[in-house]
Design a protein that fits this description.
Strand content: 25-35%
Largest sheet: 5 strands, antiparallel
Radius of gyration: 13 Å
Helix content: 25-40%
CATH class: Alpha Beta
CATH topology: Alpha-Beta Plaits
Strand order of the largest sheet: 1-2-3-5-4
Shape: elongated
Number of domains: 1
Number of strands: 5
Number of helices: 2
Structural class: alpha+beta
Length: 106
């Protein structure tokens, strides 16, 4: 069973941390489908990769038809305070990129 460590909300995004196997963090959120959603996805992934602690990797996918972005972070187990800080940083990135995406679509 996974241990829930932290949760943060950023608009339609939920960042949920669990410590099951080697998967440490997973999040999913929805943006617009198509080209605008792809731009939001590309920016989100680029910023999230920069925020990762050393030794962590990011796996992501964009579901073009629904605009759903799924991101998984894997790596060594982080101390609780470092994990919570990462979750908050990721939520801030999602909120910022989401606002930029909304501005693009207008």
């Amino acid at each position: 069973m996974a241990e829930k460590i932290a949760i943060a909300k950023a608009g339609s995004a939920s960042v949920v941390v669990s410590a099951k196997n080697n998967e440490r963090l997973a999040l999913a959120f929805t943006t617009q489908p198509g080209k605008i959603g792809r731009e939001v996805y590309d920016r989100t992934v680029a910023e999230l990769k920069q925020a990762l602690p050393e030794g962590c990797t990011l796996e992501s996918e964009f579901q073009e038809d629904s605009g759903t972005i799924v991101v998984k972070v894997k790596g060594p187990r982080l101390e609780r305070d470092k994990m919570e800080a990462l979750v908050e940083k990721m939520a801030a990135i999602l909120k910022k990129v989401g606002q930029e995406g909304a501005a693009i679509s207008k």
